[in-house]
What we know:
single chain; alpha/beta; four-stranded parallel β-sheet; 5 helices; 4 strands; elongated
Amino acid sequence: xxxxxxxxxxxxxxxxxxxxxxxxxxxxxxxxxxxxxxxxxxxxxxxxxxxxxxxxxxxxxxxxxxxxxxxxxxxxxxxxxxxxxxxxxxxxxxxxxxxxxxxxxxxxxxxxxxxxxxxxxxxxxxxxxxxxxxxxxxxxxxxxxxxxxxxxxxxx
Length: 156
């Protein structure tokens, strides 16, 4: 008896290769949609789990059109697949801000967002946006007590 992950003619597969089990992908997508009562707008999956344009196209075709990314390259993959919105889930610094602005201009049908957690980074982002005649959507990263990232809320 074979396992579900066994590949027939494995010797024909070039290594390294990425293998996608279509039935399992479709099962997982269906399970995700059932978790939100078949309301795909409630889902914002993270691109880093697959980074595959073909998979992202399946998401978009199911109505899942909002994504989180870790990198500008992942955000670009999502935009090319038809994403309506993409949040880069970390604060951009240095040359990444210019790349982000270029991404926004390259894919005007996709809304892009990033995260900020301090006034200096916010001002740099704002000045770069002004230079490019762009409006950049941002979320404020709030430290939820785990001390991994974000600004600590002020005590009242």
